[in-house]
From TrEMBL:
InterPro entries: FAD/NAD-bd_sf (IPR036188), GDP_dissociation_inhibitor (IPR018203), RabGDI (IPR000806). Transmembrane segments: none annotated. Keywords: Cytoplasm, GTPase activation. It is found in: Cytoplasm. Gene3D superfamilies: Guanine Nucleotide Dissociation Inhibitor, domain 1, Guanine Nucleotide Dissociation Inhibitor, domain 2. One of its GO terms (biological process) is small GTPase-mediated signal transduction. Regulates the GDP/GTP exchange reaction of most RAB proteins by inhibiting the dissociation of GDP from them, and the subsequent binding of GTP. GO terms for cellular component: cytoplasm. This is Rab GDP dissociation inhibitor. Pfam families: GDI (PF00996). It comes from the Eukaryota. GO terms for molecular function: GTPase activator activity; Rab GDP-dissociation inhibitor activity. Its main location: cytoplasm.
Length: 221
């Protein structure tokens, strides 16, 4: 614990351009070098890399440390902002997110269309998107955010997400007294290449009947 505390204290505010990294460490030093410098054991490394920084595997160990430090800072900022947990979840489920987006879009003069088939997405001479063509309309744009199915010639499938949704009639005892939680199982502890995420959500979020729970188990294969 003392070594972990020393590590966190040493990099407190290090993303501030006016603050220097500890001696012997630069923003491009690997995370493995940083861990070795502060003598963090395997358990502490998994806590930092997989719970705080939310890396899905150990590839980050050989990457520049500033990427992980940015993730840790985001976790800390979110925890300070929201209190007991760095995570937030919308009432009535994730379906509220696109609804909120469309409402904000309308407030700022945006246009949104439902069930509108897209004929094609056209690119300019610079290789960047320039317009979206529908059956009878064309919209010019600089940015398109869409499902990969809209860009079949520009995406390549490399992995898949496996997900299991469980309906429970009892709380998860391991997280008591909390009724909802995010559980992260590091890949190395279960002989996998990617971490397993378990989101436990209670009826307090109005996504299931009273005294019921939803547990979503997900990983990458």
């Amino acid at each position: 614990k003392l070594k972990l505390r020393s590590f966190i204290s040493a990099f407190e505010g290090c993303l501030d351009p006016l603050k220097k990294y500890p001696d012997g460490i630069t923003k491009n030093s690997s995370m493995e070098e940083v861990y070795n410098r502060y003598g963090l054991n395997k358990e502490n490394q998994e806590l930092v890399g997989h719970v705080l920084a939310l890396h899905q595997n150990d590839e980050y160990l050989n990457q520049p440390c500033y990427k992980t430090l940015e993730r840790i800072q985001l976790y800390k900022d979110s925890l300070m902002l929201h209190g007991k947990s760095p995570y937030i979840y919308p009432l009535y489920g994730l379906g509220e997110l696109p609804q909120a987006f469309t409402r904000i879009s309308a407030v700022f003069g945006g246009t949104y269309m439902l069930n509108k088939p897209v004929n094609r997405i056209e690119m300019g001479e610079d290789g960047k998107v320039c317009q979206v063509v529908f059956a009878d309309e064309t919209y010019k744009t600089k940015i398109v955010i869409g499902d990969p199915s809209y860009f079949p010639d520009r995406v390549k499938k490399v992995r898949s997400v496996v997900r299991c949704i469980c309906l429970l009639n009892h709380p998860v005892t391991a997280i008591a007294p909390s009724m909802s939680a995010q559980i992260i199982i590091p890949a190395s502890q279960v002989g996998r290449k990617s971490d397993i995420y378990v989101s436990v959500i209670s009826s307090d979020f109005n996504i299931c009947p009273p005294n019921m729970f939803v547990a979503i188990v997900a990983s990458i294969v």
